[in-house]
Structures are given as structure tokens and as C-alpha cells.
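Predict structure. Chain length: 177.
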Amino acid sequence: MNGDAIHTDLTKRVRDLVRLMDDMRELYGQLFTCIDSRLAAMKRADWEAMHAGGERSRSITVRLAERDGLRRQLLDAIGRELGLPPSAGRTLTVSDLAARISPDEASALQAAANRLRPVMAGVGQANRVAGFVARGILEHLRWVFEAVVPRTEHSGGYGGDGAAAAPSNAILFETLG
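Prediction complete.
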């Protein structure tokens, strides 16, 4: 293959990488919106909205994982075209790659990274907040359930006929269904 063909393939792959990064930015934006909606649902104690938000988050996360796999494949191909050892391309940072390609390509790549970076950071922060809130809810529920579970084996109840009944080892969820 001659140098022009290699340069054309490299240019095409860098262009594909920039488009892929923009696609990932869009998906991260959708994930941020989804996490934000789930936080609002947590505040309202809206179980259905929390569940639906979780399902949407999982769907988006699967798509992001697929895109990240494509990103690694593209970086490996770019690395091979740059003469790097196998799989070395995926370890290149944006700055490292930008230093090895044309200024126009480098500018487009850095611009895509600059668009992607803050959206990813926002998702990370929103995830931390959602995790903190979810742990708080779980801790509160643990406290509530400990409060309604009998503390001693002597605490019995009454049967349907009004007579004292021996305590059962059934927990609240088993009792209520």
C-alpha cells in the first residue's frame, strides 16, 4: 500500500473516531438526563419512574459499552497505521494521537474530546449523587424494617380468633406478601 492510501485510511479512521466520540457524547447526555430523572423520582418516592429510569439507564449503558468497544477497535487500527505494536493504539491519549496526525485532524479530535469530557464528568457526578441518595434510602428502609421486626422471641401476637399466638419467624415481607 502506498503512503497516500495509508494517509487516506488514517484520515478516514480519525474522522470515524471523531464521529464516534460525538455519538458517545450524545449517549452520555441521554444518560445524564436519565439519571437526573431518576433522582427526581427518588425525591417523589415514585417507584415506577425509578424502575423505568433504571431500565433506560441500562439500555444506554449497553449502547455506550458497544461504542467503547468500537472506539478501542478504531484506536487499534489507527495505531497499526501509525506503526505501533498491536493493541498499543487503544492506550493512546487524545494528546498523544493528536501529536501523530495532521493539524486539521488533531484539531477535530481535540474538539470532540473537549465536547465529550464535560458530559462524561457530569454523568460521573450525577452517578455519585444517585448512589449516595440510593444508599440513604436503603439505610432508611433497613431502619424501618428493623423497627417492625420483633426484637425478642417472647413478642407474640394474636390469631384470627383473638387468642394469643406464638411468635412466628416470618418477616414483614412474608407476612404482607
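Summary: The longest helix spans residues 103-148.
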